[in-house]
Amino acid sequence: QAQLVESGGGLVQAGGSLRLSCAASGRAFSMYTVAWFRQAPGKEREFVAVITSDAWTTYYADSVKGRFTISRNNAKNTVYLQMNSLKPEDTAVYYCAAGAVSANSVRVGDRRPDYWGQGTQVTVSS
Q1: Does the pLDDT at position 102 exceed 90?
Q2: pLDDT at position 51, please?
Q3: For strand 18-25 and strand 78-83, is the pairing parallel, antiparallel, or unpaired?
Q4: What 3-state class would DSSP assign to 48?
Q5: 16, 125 Cβ separation under 8 angstroms
Q6: What is the DSSP string of 11-41?
């Protein structure tokens, strides 16, 4: 099992940057695929980015490709989401999720990870 805690959200102007962190407890975390999702008001939760357990493979939603970077430090049981060139449409609650699933299955929406954090709010002002 894993318990996930997101941090790093906040209010930023369009064009700015934020780095989200997802800190996990549990020894199995380093073996899990980890993803970021987001949910804007009135919209469904959507996939943002995913990284394999060994960090060799990452996938991104088209809407964030080239602006966001997912990375992980297994020694610290932490996954990051560096968000640059933020836009007002990036405003959402961002969730970290981890589990024994393939990164590609998460990317295409076939499966979702088992463990989720409580989310952190990101607000981008225009």
Answers
A1: yes
A2: 98
A3: antiparallel
A4: strand
A5: no
A6: EEETT--EEEEEEEESGGGGGSEEEEEEE-T
Which residue is associated with the tokens 């980015």?
A: 49
pLDDT at position 27 is: 81
Considering only CA atoms, give the Rg of the chain.
13
The single residue listed with the structure tokens 């990317």 is 107
Q: Per DSSP, which regions of 46-108 are E strands?
A: 46-51, 58-60, 68-73, 78-83, 92-99
Which amino acid is located at 63 in the chain?
A: S
| Cα–Cα dist 105/113, whole Å | 10
**Average pLDDT of the segment spanning 12-34:** 95
Q: What is the pLDDT of residues 24-81, one digit of tens each?
A: 998 889 999 999 999 999 999 999 999 999 999 999 999 999 999 999 999 999 999 9
**95 within 8 A of 45, measured Cβ to Cβ:** yes
Token readout for 109 is 């929406």
Query: Which amino acid is present at 94?
Result: Y
CB 45 within 8 A of CB 37: yes
Strand-pair category, 10-13 with 120-125: parallel
